[in-house]
Specification:
Structural class: alpha+beta
Protein name: Nucleotidyltransferase domain-containing protein
Strand content: 5-15%
Number of domains: 2
Helix content: 55-70%
Order of helices and strands: HEHEHHEHHEHHHHHHHH
Number of helices: 14
Organism: Leptospira ognonensis
Largest sheet: 4 strands, mixed
Distance between the termini: 41 Å
Strand order of the largest sheet: 3-2-1-4
Length: 259
């Protein structure tokens, strides 16, 4: 795991700051992504998942304290943190939502104890159950609607919004069109660097022209997303073009109206 190779003083500083965070309930910080798996490159960021009670997450000071502690690691690579509570993650787990499966199968504990271990024990009873196409598709479509309603403040947020919508659209396509998806395939669908190779290797015969174009668009958005995290300049005209391409491929009049 990448964090084990960090400068010991830097790692200790992060842990010390996390110890000082005030919370009403126990929380954990999980480490996941390419730097956890070991297949990262020089542009890979550090991905963390904050597992905390919803009452704590509602306090800006709590989230800010966690972010401040983790941001010491910006000297290593850009830090990306998302947050969720146990109940929402449990719900996602039960329907085999790709992001939750990615965490349950590959994440490690960076800080804290108990919450994650309990969820992983529960996951063992759901792991081999059949994926409910209806439930999972419905959830992913709700997530797309959520991202479409976001008001982006800058290029970085806009790229992230488009990348998530494009990725989730591809997830829905695979769930509806590919029989007997394996856990390995579901995890790769939620791994940005592995999604395109997965589709091209295994689903080439099933994909139509629109899906192929979405796949190419996803590749471009992923590259832009990495550039944005490393604060490289990106022309707004290029983002404008990709956004309209996504709207066109999805035939998404609602997104067009929101734009």
């Amino acid at each position: 795991m990448e964090y084990e190779a960090l400068n010991p003083k830097l790692y200790a500083r992060v842990l010390d700051d996390l110890e000082l965070v005030i919370s009403h309930k126990p929380f954990q910080v999980l480490f996941y992504g390419s730097r956890e798996r070991g297949d990262y490159d020089e542009l890979s960021d550090l991905n963390f998942y904050l597992l905390a009670h919803s009452t704590d997450q509602m306090k800006p000071s709590f989230i800010e304290s966690i972010s401040s502690a983790l941001n010491h690691l910006e000297s290593v690579a850009p830090v990306n943190m998302i947050a969720g509570d146990t109940e929402s993650l449990r719900m996602r787990m039960k329907i085999h939502e790709p992001g939750s499966i990615q965490l349950l199968e590959n994440a490690s504990v960076f800080y804290g104890e108990t919450l994650w271990e309990n969820l992983q024990n529960e996951w063992k009873s759901f792991r081999n159950r059949e994926v409910s196409i209806i439930d999972l598709t419905s959830y992913l479509e709700k997530r797309i609607r959520f991202f479409k309603q976001q008001v982006t403040k800058n290029v970085k947020e806009e790229i992230s919004q488009l990348e998530r919508i494009c990725t989730l659209t591809l997830h829905i396509w695979a769930i509806k069109n590919i029989n007997d998806l394996t856990l390995s395939e579901i995890i790769k669908m939620d791994t940005p660097s592995q999604l395109v190779p997965l589709f091209k290797l295994l689903y080439q015969n099933e994909m139509d022209e629109t899906t192929l174009e979405l796949l190419d668009l996803n590749r471009k958005l992923y590259a832009f997303k990495r550039d944005a995290r490393w604060k490289r300049e990106i022309a707004r005209e290029e983002i404008f073009e990709l956004k309209h391409k996504l709207i066109s491929l999805r035939k998404d009049e609602e997104f067009l109206l929101n734009y």
